[in-house]
Write a structure and sequence with these properties.
13 helices; globular; about 270 residues; single chain; mainly alpha
Length: about 270
Amino acid sequence: MDKAKKLILNLKLFFSYRELLLNLARREITQRYKQSILGYFWVILNPLFQLLVLSFVFSTIFRVSSFSVPYIVFLMVGLLPWNFFSSSLSSASNALVGNSSLITKIYFPREILVYGTILAKIVDFLYSCLVLIPFFLYFHIILNWQVLWVIPIFIIQLIFTAALSLLISSFNLFYRDIQYLLNLIISLWFYLTPVLYPVEQFPEKYRFIFSLNPMSVIINAYRQTVLGGGPPNLNSLGIAALTSIIFFLVAYLIFKKSEGQFADYV
């Protein structure tokens, strides 16, 4: 009961610092492409080039089948959410280390630093989704009202991403090897998530891996909704939602418990 009250108080305190959150997100967005000629247009160009290269390699050379839709569209619907997830984790790993001056000088809820990086990545994600429009028009892919399932799916992904980001940012402050280990983990995780291939093409005896991987459920849910024109697997999505919420609460409590030591390690 005491933990529940403490959690509510922390949420109220966090809400009072919402302007700081927005300013941190705005700062990250503006500084990233400062003195860049193309500026924020890189948010669209980067996933576009990545998409074209991966599509050529896996559809032409390795001949991965995407069944009812063109492979480049199949890839795109999985790749964009994955890029949001991986870039959020990478940025969050340095959210505390890179803001040492703020941590040592003034008090505010430290999780704002993590959420600020994620908020900036949400903006990137929304802009990168513009890549979908010309391909959907070219391949005559029609969306129906079921596409609204994208909203709860994204919320579930956001909760899971925030939970993992809180843990990574705090652990990296204490053990700087985490940021290097993270690159390896993300690379392995990418290939164990059905971003490049349909689940059906993965050996059946190893498919249990996907049930243990929340990102597999989320990526498949996006495809079932956007490309399949129907609702996602509600049982799998419900489990993913419950797991993400529990994981977030645990990660948040661990983060807040170690928060008092942050100033000693920056």
